[in-house]
């Protein structure tokens, strides 16, 4: 029997503002869509936190035995909010800055995104569609919205008619708890507003100016899709008109997700998503991360130690452990002290897991393994509460130490179950890795290569160039490149 039949999972739904018992639309199956990155720059730590939260959620669904289709998109099309000013298109700005074609920018930062997520041991989504790969689907949605009276064309652009949507008894603003009348009263003036019937109307398709590089043919002329449309097109294509979960950062709640709700209801006559999930923000040293203030660090800078905020480099495992000690709906603050504490805590956890292999079984059990296991499930069943799960895992480490001191005992069957369960929650559910062995191997490799560099230097000093070349060539054959410089010889692994 799959685990989901015995576990009562509750998830906080932004739409209702309450924790709800999770009941998938199709028993044993989960459809989950998460808004992915806009690939015009390096992925930032806030993005990593959001995607890590959904990585754990994805892992837990799989662990419970759900057949899970996890869709996470790539936004690779230039888009504007609504003002029509090409200077606000992030892809255009970045392509000019780097002197690259827009799709070169897309490729560069898509590769960066995948490399970073791989470092943190993310599972790949089931499907990773791109906005530019679904232009036809977006055009078809626009045509349907126009035909049903929810959108209108003007000067080569198409807008969603918010007022008409509400006049038909629907409620634009229901996800973010915004009042439509307040929205109409508090809208700032933007260029291009004269195209609209109402200031709140949002773009489904924008007419491309001569300066706009990314453009496609459409029934309304050359242009590009609105930002909100792509997620509706891709989520419904791969998950259906009505699916289980839609997630993203809380900054997307309005207007992006609000617009998705409206588009889905208008197109299909039904609520598109049962549960909306939103992750909270990441801060550093108690302040919001911002390039403009200088309180900002990229993921790879944290891992390499090449920054001014942290005293050393940290393994991806440590960063992941640090992030998961905060609930996904809580603000997470990182600092040098927090990272050092996480490193210490993680080492304690992993050392405890290794210790259990040396423990001998007994004829009796002095504590209930099944109760401890259920406490771990209870934590994850309570809206994926990773901080409580981690606290329970440390309680498990306390049991291991008691067993090691012969102050507690487990039967062979209970010991096997205990060992399997604690490893499952640490490595499969939380997605942590035992990197100490990898780290030790790297140190050994560095020691061996440095020894060979010393032998090569000695050969060169003795004018034994044949031996010097042999050492270099054999290392190259193994994928190790030597680099001779003023300060000596270094190496890199290719």
Describe it.
The protein is of the alpha/beta class and 494 residues long. The chain has 3 domains: 3-279, Rossmann fold (3-Layer(aba) Sandwich); 309-429, no CATH class; 436-493, no CATH class. The protein contains 16 helices and 15 strands. It has helices at residues 45-64, 90-98, 102-119, 135-147, 162-167, 180-185, 227-239, 253-268, 299-304, 316-324, 336-355, 369-381, 386-404, 412-429, 436-461, 465-477; strands at residues 10-13, 18-21, 29-34, 67-72, 151-154, 157-160, 202-207, 223-225, 243-249, 273-279, 282-284, 287-288, 332-334, 480-485, 488-493. It has a 4-stranded parallel β-sheet, sandwiched between helices. Helix 2 packs across helix 3, helix 4 packs across helix 7 and helix 11 packs across helix 13.
Offer a quick outline of the entry.
With 494 residues, this protein is of the alpha/beta class. The protein has three domains: 277 residues, 3-Layer(aba) Sandwich (Rossmann fold), CATH 3.40.50.620; 121 residues, no CATH class; 58 residues, no CATH class.
């Amino acid at each position: 029997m799959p685990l989901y039949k015995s576990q009562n999972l509750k998830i906080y739904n932004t739409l209702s503002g309450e924790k709800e018992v999770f009941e998938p639309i199709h028993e044993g199956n989960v459809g989950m869509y998460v808004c992915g990155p806009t690939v015009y720059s390096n992925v930032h730590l806030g993005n990593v936190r959001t995607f890590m939260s959904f990585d754990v959620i994805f892992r837990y669904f799989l662990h419970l035995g759900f057949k899970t289709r996890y869709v996470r998109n790539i936004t690779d099309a230039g888009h504007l909010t609504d003002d029509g000013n090409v200077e606000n298109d992030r892809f255009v700005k970045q392509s000019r800055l780097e002197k690259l074609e827009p799709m070169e920018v897309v490729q560069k930062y898509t590769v960066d995104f995948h490399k970073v997520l791989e470092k943190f041991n993310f599972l790949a989504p089931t499907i990773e569609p791109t906005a530019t790969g679904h232009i036809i689907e977006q055009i078809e949605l626009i045509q349907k919205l126009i035909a049903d009276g929810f959108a209108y064309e003007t000067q080569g652009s198409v807008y969603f008619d918010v007022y008409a949507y509400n006049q038909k008894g629907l409620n634009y603003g229901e996800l973010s708890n915004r009042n439509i009348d307040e929205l109409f009263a508090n809208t700032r003036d933007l260029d291009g507003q004269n195209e609209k019937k109402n200031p709140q109307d949002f773009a489904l398709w924008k007419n491309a100016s001569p300066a706009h590089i990314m453009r496609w043919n459409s029934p309304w002329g050359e242009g590009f899709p609105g930002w909100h449309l792509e997620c509706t097109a891709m989520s419904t294509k791969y998950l259906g008109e009505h699916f289980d979960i839609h997630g993203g950062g809380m900054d997307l709640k309005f207007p992006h997700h609000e617009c998705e709700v409206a588009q889905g209801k208008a197109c299909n006559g039904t609520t598109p998503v049962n549960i909306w999930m939103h992750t909270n923000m990441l801060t550093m040293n108690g302040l919001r991360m911002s390039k403009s203030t200088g309180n900002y660090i990229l993921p790879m800078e944290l891992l390499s130690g090449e920054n001014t905020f942290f005293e050393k480099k940290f393994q991806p495992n440590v960063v992941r452990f640090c992030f998961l000690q905060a609930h996904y709906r809580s603000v997470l603050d990182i600092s040098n002290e927090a990272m050092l504490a996480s490193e210490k805590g993680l080492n304690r956890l992993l050392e405890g897991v290794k210790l259990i292999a040396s423990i001998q079984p007994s004829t009796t059990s002095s504590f209930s393994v099944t109760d401890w296991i259920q406490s771990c499930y209870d934590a994850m069943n309570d809206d994926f509460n990773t901080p409580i799960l981690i606290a329970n895992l440390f309680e498990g480490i306390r049991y291991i130490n008691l067993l090691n001191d012969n102050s507690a005992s487990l039967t062979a069957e209970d010991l096997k179950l205990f060992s399997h369960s604690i490893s499952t929650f640490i490595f499969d559910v939380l997605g942590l890795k035992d990197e100490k062995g990898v780290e030790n191997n790297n140190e050994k490799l560095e020691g061996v290569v440095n020894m060979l560099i010393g032998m090569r230097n000695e050969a060169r000093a003795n004018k034994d160039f044949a031996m010097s070349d042999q050492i270099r060539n054999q290392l190259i054959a193994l994928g190790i490149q030597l680099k001779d410089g003023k300060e000596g010889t270094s190496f890199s692994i290719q």
